[in-house]
Amino acid sequence: MIFQDPYGSLNPRRRVGAIIGDPFVIHKTATGAQRKRQVQELMERVGLNPEHYNRFPAEFSGGQRQRIGVARALALRPKLIICDEPVSALDVSIQAQVLNLLSDLQDDFGLSYLFIAHDLEVVRHVSNAVIVMYLGKVAEAGPKGPVYEMPRHPYTAALLSAAAAADPKLAAARQRIILTGDVPSPINPPSGCRFHPRCPKAAELCSQQEPPLESKLGDPATHVTACHFPVEAGENLAVADRRERR
Amino acid sequence: MSITEVQFQAQAVESAPEEAIQGRSQWQLTWRRLRQDKVAVTSIVVILIMVVLAILAPVFAAALGHGEYQAFTGAGLSSAGIPVGPGVHGFPLGTDYIGRDLLVRILYGARISLFVGLSTTLIATVAGVSIGLVAGYFGGVVDTVLARFIDTVLAFPFIVLALALAAIYGPSLLIVIGVITFFSWAGISRIVRGQTLSVKEKEYIEAARSLGAGPWRIMFIDILPNLLGPVLVLATLYIPTAVVFEATLSFLGIGIPAPTPSWGVILSEAQTYYQVAWWYVVFPAFALLITTLAFNLLGDGIRDAMDPRTERLFAARRKRRKDSVTLKDSEMPHTPPASVTGAG
Q1: Is B25 within 8 Å of chain A by CB?
Q2: Which of A3, A4, A11, A39 would best serve as a mutation to test chain B binding (most B beta carbons within 10 A)?
Q3: Is A22 found in the same domain as A103?
Q4: A157 & A85 share domain
Q5: Element (H, E) at A81
Q6: How far apart are CA B4 and CA B2, in angstroms?
Q7: Does residue A158 have a pLDDT over 80?
Q8: Which of A116, B6, B13, B120 has its CA 20 to 30 A from that of B103?
Q9: CB contact under 8 A, B3 and A3
Q10: Pairing of strands A137-143, A224-225
Q11: Full domain range(s) for residue B85
Q12: Which residues span the domain enclosing A92?
């Protein structure tokens, strides 16, 4: 598990060596000098100076702290690491460093990541398969390529249209799908399709029946969408939205 | 601890000169600041002197040739049977009502007072921290039961209980320690419980849980270090309370039984003689006063040292900084745990 907030996820009263060494202590896999050696190997592996073993978290920058979090998550050599927005609290340049580190570690240790993020460019960079969630339900899931190029769920389409583009020309040419209203409370979610109060394509059916998660419009079986009226190729939701609002 | 504070702290550390960067713990930083606090240093010196005097009480007794229970009915009392004053007949601080050396008795009294103060505070702190941690961490029914128990103890009339116990078992040191401990742990527990409630929501506790740490490990390894600051301050402030508590109980005759020289006992005996023998009241009272004052001021000093947001220290330091422009690394700001006052 890698946490979102590199400041909150490290105990300010404990030394880095103790924090990274915790998994070994808890699971009794290494003790004494052996544990220290393993911790220092981990620190080196994630790009920290092993001599900083006795420092406190407050003496590290955000990116370094996130590396400490990564080292801690790696300690027990897991097969799967859950990354809860691991880079959203970092600067863009530091984000790239941490992402590259994660990808290197993936190659070296044969890791799988469950990578939770809201930055679509980061998601595009790191993932093989993408799941888009709205109000606690899967809206769309599939391999990265199809989801990004041919989003079927109106929510996915709206998200992608709202993502910042690095190329200003592209950004200017793009028509944003502007969703109306706010995200409803997850405590009292809307009936039927949870997205229907804000969906530009919503119809009567959407408020009554929850759409099943299945492959739509000839998509491969790996690409599934929970929508009664999936977006078709070439369809312009931005226009639909504008009409609605008028 | 908010993110901005930590960032500020991190920046401060990074901008310090290269050789200054070393893993300095919360305690080292507190100690460095405490050393600059003249009042706190004086308090430490006073307390140390008191401890040394208490330890050396038998040496003084031997040097003066006056035992703690030894009554000098000849030299120690005037012809009218009144205690002799300081300096008379080789009694540095005079004598008490049956001609015992007051200095020796006060020094032996320091042993009792400090022992009661330190032992009760130690027991109360350990008990209070454990119960507070358990109540705060587990929550739910455990918390409800323990919190109500704490409230009950805090609402208890301590003099009545002490009187009742002394009446049944007769006054003794054990009962004094028991009573003081019983009424001290609850306050510490309440503070610790509140702090635990806030610390346990931190993400690093969740991280520890995700690594498979059990509740006891989380409580004592992950949460406790974050509470030690307030607990240390509180414990330091409980020592003088316990010393006064002991003196009060002894004064009332329900504490340390009479021939044993405790400050409360001496003061109690002095009640009837203060008009003819001022030293009989003044010296034990003074010993009690400076001891409790020193512990109280030290507690304040530790709190200030742990919380650099406290104005007093910073104001003094700013003034000093005007004189010398060089910024020493020891003057780096540091983020402390929440102060005790904010915890209740």
Answers
A1: yes
A2: A11
A3: yes
A4: no
A5: strand A80-84
A6: 6
A7: yes
A8: B120
A9: no
A10: antiparallel
A11: 26-342
A12: 16-126
A218 has pLDDT over 80: no
B contact residues 226-245, partner A, Cβ 8 Å cutoff:
226, 228
Q: Report how many domains make up chain A.
A: 2
Instruction: Count contacts between A and B (CB, < 8 Å).
Output: 75
DSSP string, A108-167: HHT-EEEEE-S-HHHHHHH-SEEEEEETTEEEEEEEHHHHHHS--SHHHHHHHHHS--SS
Of A67, A92, A126, which residue sits at a domain end?
Answer: A126
Rounded to an integer, the average pLDDT of A149-169 is: 79
CA of A111, closest CA in chain B: separation in Å? 17
Tens digit of pLDDT for each residue in A15-73? 888 888 888 888 888 778 888 888 888 888 888 888 888 888 888 888 888 888 888 88
Given a cut of 80, whether residue B26 has pLDDT beyond it is no
pLDDT in tens, A14-28: 888 888 888 888 888
Place of tokens 């102060």: B339
How many domains in chain B? 1
Which one of A3, A5, A9, A13 makes the best mutation probe of the B interface by having the most chain B beta carbons within 10 Å? Answer: A13
- The predicted pLDDT at position B320 comes to 61
Per-residue tokens: B145: 């039961």
Contact B226, B337 (CB under 8 A): yes
